[in-house]
Amino acid sequence: MKHTGKFLAIFILLLFFFVSLRYWLVLEDTAKVGRESPDFLLKDLEGNDVQLSDYFGNRLIVVFWATWCDSCKDLLTVLEDIEGWDILAINLAEDSQVVKEFASEQISFKVLLDKKGRVADRYNVSGVPETFIIDKEGVLRARIPGNIPREQLIKILKEYTP
User: Fold this and answer.
1) CATH number of the domain that 99 lies in?
2) Taking the CB of residue 95, how many other CB atoms lie within 10 A of it?
3) pLDDT tens digits for 33-64?
4) Do 105 and 47 have their domain in common?
5) Whether residues 42 and 23 fall in one domain
6) Whether 116 contacts 57, CB under 8 Å
7) SS3 120
8) pLDDT tens for each residue of 93-130
9) Domain containing 9: what range?
């Protein structure tokens, strides 16, 4: 009986340790301003693999969006006029055909599909649109929830433009 109590205590301690470790590892792998952006691999509309780290060395805007979101449509229109930045528009969990039809009419930059929302989870996306500014070193410099007026976005981008 004494040994059963010890084994139970050890089991509970080990369980707590592994749950805490998993939680800590998940937190370490999430996007935080001032830290390197978590890498990801997603498919584009043509089925090609696109990896975030392939864009390190360039200034990058990553925006999470959806076709049904009016604010997203406004932001995507603003992003069409931005020069000197690569843009990855990550659609959040919609049917690829719906996204393809929408993008063919509205978007000239790279569109990626986050079908299960896993990348959005790593970036702690709480709604759409949500925009992330990543510098040439791959460091996340700004996180912008919601829509943003063109002038304000340009002001933010100028902070990271040499």
Assistant:
1) 3.40.30.10
2) 12
3) 999 999 999 999 999 999 999 999 999 999 99
4) yes
5) no
6) no
7) helix
8) 999 999 999 999 989 999 999 999 999 999 999 999 99
9) 1-30
